[in-house]
Amino acid sequence: MIFNVCFSSPAKINFNKFIHFIFDIRQILVYTIICRIFSGRSDITHYISLDMEWSQPFSQNSIKKRNGTALHGEIIQIGAVKLNRWLRAVDKFEINLKPEVYKHIHKHIASITRIDTRTAGNGTDAVEALESFISWCGKDFSFITWGDEDIKILSENLAFRGFPLEYIPEKNYDLQLVFDYHTQKTGRQYSLDYAMDFYGIKETLKRHNAYNDAYYTALVCKKMKPKRYFKHYRDVEIKRLSFCDEKEFEGFVKDIELFEDLNIKTVAEKISGESVICPECKAPAASILKYKQSDLKYAVMCKCAYHGRFLSLLKLCPIEELNVVKVVRNTYRPGNEANKNMRLKSKAWKWKVIKTDGYQQISIK
């Protein structure tokens, strides 16, 4: 059909129709490319690889509060690398902040960060530094961090000093979480050093400096190419919660289950109605004793007809930002030394029964 449009006959070429045909094909190709580019495009114009160092209170009793916010860590150093839409570095930011709340830097933090009390005291005023950082970040961006602590500490420091939390983007990405999901699938929190070794990134700058760590995070990000996970980040968060590295837990079997329900009582009723499976033969085991230590912790002593007694410990972990409850069940293998020790320990415990509601409510003295 195209042949007939372009050629009036096998011997004579219709050049006008041929040129129009080529022009139309060119327009279609350009239109298709533009559509593909913008269809996967979000409102995000750039990313910021962020790392920070902070001083901490010496005890829980010394935590300061202001503007309804408890300050668990006061930022003393900010380092960041600005990445464009294609995760290429285009700018950098680094600044030291003068602490006004936790002025004395703990010697352990000083040894790691190489920032002692005197060095921190020469930093920029905290409000001025935060304003400068906010201005540098710009608009329509997302933070990329290694771990989730930096965003929490940044939020606390902004709120503590009266900044609106609208400066924190709604979507931020924990690259540590994405790295485990992408490469290991164990549910572990791998260090930045581990990820650098994994991708063959050489350490040319000293670690535990805010800018240097932000720089290395950006390099890992570029190697990982994580944008396909950013599009479905919530799914990555939820799926990773169910990963379990059994090699770490010798002596017992670890099982993780997720419930898309934040009602603790409802979830507790569901897991209390489930039969416990013997970790050796996978057969249903009879529950001998059921204890409720708190709303989030349960213990079940079970007996398998073939392998004897074993203990199953359950812990409920509500995760509000994902609207799920993570239930971790640690079941000690029958006959295992850890199980024997746990049984001996349970005899030494002084159980005080408070009430009964399916489980026995207890307190351990």
Helix and strand sequence: HHEEEEEHHEHEHEHHHHHEHEEEEEHEE
Count the DSSP helices: 13
Low-confidence parts, pLDDT < 50 over ≥5 residues?
A: 1-12, 35-41, 244-250, 347-365
Our estimate of the beta-strand percent is: 25-35%
| Count of discrete structural domains | 2
Query: Kindly state the mean pLDDT as a whole number?
Result: 77
CATH architecture of the largest domain: 2-Layer Sandwich
Bin the helical content: 25-40%
In short, what is this structure?
This protein is of the alpha+beta class and 365 residues long. Helices cover 36% and strands 29% of the residues. The protein starts with a helix and ends with a strand.
Describe this protein with a few key phrases.
29% strand; alpha+beta; 36% helix; Nucleotidyltransferase, domain 5
Could you describe the 3D structure shown?
36% of the residues lie in helices and 29% in strands. With 365 residues, it is of the alpha+beta class. The chain folds into 2 domains: 46-239, Ribonuclease H-like superfamily/Ribonuclease H (Nucleotidyltransferase, domain 5), CATH 3.30.420.10; 245-364, 2-Layer Sandwich (Alpha-D-Glucose-1,6-Bisphosphate, Chain A, domain 4), CATH 3.30.530. The strands form 3 sheets. Strands 9, 10, 11, 12, 13, 14, 15 and 16 form an 8-stranded mixed β-sheet that branches. It has a 6-stranded mixed β-sheet with strand order 6-5-4-1-7-8. The radius of gyration is 29 Å and the shape is globular. The N and C termini lie far apart (88 Å).
